[in-house]
Design goal:
Helix content is 49%, strand content 4%. The protein is mainly alpha-helical. Strands 1-2 form a two-stranded antiparallel ribbon. A two-stranded antiparallel ribbon has the order 3-4. The two termini are 22 Å apart. Residues 1-6 and 9-54 have low confidence and may be disordered.
Length: 307
């Protein structure tokens, strides 16, 4: 998976191959266990019965549609995809599984940003063609992905890891907001942590050093801050993370608290950038929720979840 700083007050040079999900392009990489390989994908859940219907003028992108390398075409793709995704999110009642249009549009948006993170010159020229609000969003998303990719290291294509469907978006949002009320840690920050760590719980594997659950806690830290809960339970994990972040300085000093959570300045920057986007527009939470798990291998990038 990736080489990155370990969690929760471990030495900053330690390895912790926890799942920074699609942001890092990897999933958690504990000891091999019965799981999907890097070359395969888990079957995607069937679409919700309460699907939103694409507008007649919107053509949904194919899951592996080529990302344009020309700045003008890239800007047009990002502008059209983001507008269509926002409309699809608005039409989605947020109950059940995401409709197919939301999944496909979010995946394409994610793939565009993964491309811009790796091609800064093309990205800069493309972003100059965007409206100011979308340009700011694009710069934040690109910078966040680039920060986390800087921590990533390819794994062998034979690496095995476990993925699973994410809990419903509305259910997770309820956990984040309840934790905010109890501990004062903003729900957007908590959501950004789960997004980075396990792609909202899609990555099931423990890290090779033993970090566990959707918020990736080391056992000793969980014992101290988990309040007797189940580290694998999304609600308990969110509460434990909020408890830990508050004890580490949040909400007064998010940078200090997040650095305690993961000893990496790049990680801290990425979390705050994604949290800022969710604060600016709550629809970005639902877009991020539908971003998928990628893994970077020595043979190339693979996608493990989604349509």
């Amino acid at each position: 998976m990736e080489e990155r700083h370990d969690h929760h007050r471990r030495p900053a040079r330690a390895l912790a191959a926890t799942a920074l999900a699609a942001l890092l392009g990897t999933a958690a990489c504990g000891d091999p266990a019965p799981a999907a390989s890097a070359a395969g994908r888990q079957p995607s859940p069937s679409p919700s019965t309460s699907t939103s219907t694409p507008r007649p003028d919107v053509t949904l992108p194919a899951p592996d549609q080529k990302i344009p390398g020309d700045p003008a075409r890239l800007a047009a793709a990002l502008k059209g995809t983001s507008a269509a995704l926002n409309a699809a999110i608005d039409a989605w009642p947020k109950t059940g599984k995401p409709p197919r249009d939301v999944e496909l549009l979010a995946l394409h948006q994610q793939r565009v940003y993964r491309y811009t993170a790796r091609h800064p010159d093309v990205a800069a020229r493309a972003f100059a063609r965007l409206p100011s609000g979308l340009a700011a969003q694009a710069k934040d998303n690109t910078a966040a992905i680039r920060e986390l990719l800087s921590l990533a290291h390819p794994v062998k294509p034979s690496a095995t890891f476990k993925v699973q469907p994410a809990p419903p978006a509305a259910e997770l949002l309820g956990h984040f907001k309840k934790a905010e009320r109890k501990f004062g840690v903003e729900w957007e920050v908590l959501a950004a942590v789960m997004f980075a760590e396990t792609k909202f719980g899609r990555v099931k594997s423990d890290s090779h050093v033993g970090a566990q659950g959707p918020m990736q806690f080391m056992p000793g830290t969980w014992k101290a801050y988990g309040m007797g809960g189940d580290v694998q339970d999304p609600r308990d994990a969110v509460m434990g993370a909020a408890n830990y972040l508050r004890a580490s300085g949040a909400p007064r000093d998010y940078r200090r608290a997040l650095y305690a959570y993961n000893h990496s300045r790049a990680y801290v920057n990425a979390i705050l950038l994604h949290a800022r986007q969710m604060k600016r527009d709550p629809r970005n939470y639902y877009a991020y929720y539908n971003w998928q798990v990628f893994v970077i291998t020595t043979a190339g990038e693979r996608r493990l979840t989604g349509p």
